[in-house]
């Protein structure tokens, strides 16, 4: 009798255990079925190996484009005050313009010859500063960017070019180009960036970042400056043709920008994969800022990676000059005026 009670008790316990286990298993299944499926994030777009190698090498070199020395500009006043120091001034203008008047001690070197000049004719790091000078500061800004990216950390572009040195030079350049023709065509709304995609394919045949940088550096100097510059007239005549980058502060962008322009944040774009992936590799890119100096530096970096980028020559000064004068105190615009012009002597020979 005792054994029978024991067996009965065993079966009761086993039966209830079975019910509990079934109930538990059912709950788990139900939980699985009712649990929300997490949103599937789109996989990041892979970038090609050449772009990776170049990005990695530039980062190892010091990530110049996101440092405090970018862009590397120097005022004419400082150049004049340091004429007796261990600086080298390189004038990129034509030999004829150089002979008609240049800064004391300057040497005349064609922009396309800069890589050879730095490699074979001088020892760049023997100088405290190497200062590039041109007509307006546009060519020198672009060239300085490439030289800095190549590792020449003592190179500077003189702001405003020879226009900042004396009035005669300014009369034929900056004072002659400032304009307000298109300031009534500006828009103020935000425009969206393009969808992320791969960087341009360089097909250089190079495998290391150092080889890629050297190859692109030499090629870009060989190509010269003509195809790098674009005018406000060209852009405003057909803005839909271009992917237009406004490289400036948000308040300046919102105060009025070229129709269709997209704002890209200074110190938050170059070298940042997710941002650069939104710049189309199959469309002409126009970069602009207030003066064309900063955009010249940015354009050099983008062209290094194979983007078909151009800098808007003279920047906002070339199409919304009166607005810059009017809002100068509130938005810190930098319009070119006679106050920017020095009264410094030139040498003729």
> Spans with pLDDT under 50 lasting ≥5 residues?
1-43
Strand content: 5-15%
Cα radius of gyration in angstroms = 30 Å
Count of domains: 2
Main pleated-sheet profile: 5 strands, parallel
The top-level CATH class of the largest domain is Alpha Beta
Tell me the helix content.
Answer: 25-40%
CATH names the topology of the largest domain as: Oxidized Rhodanese, domain 1
Intertermini distance = 130 Å
Task: Please count the helical segments.
Answer: 15
Would you count the extended β strands for me? Answer: 10
Q: Which CATH-level-2 architecture of the largest domain?
A: 3-Layer(aba) Sandwich
Element layout with pairings:
Elements: H1 2-34, H2 49-60, E1 73-74, H3 76-81, E2 87-91, H4 95-100, E3 107-108, H5 114-121, E4 129-133, H6 138-149, E5 155-158, H7 167-171, H8 174-177, H9 209-223, E6 229-230, H10 232-237, E7 243-246, H11 250-254, E8 262-263, H12 273-276, E9 285-288, H13 293-304, E10 309-312, H14 321-326, H15 328-331
Parallel strand pairs: 1-5, 2-3, 2-4, 4-5, 6-10, 7-8, 7-9, 9-10
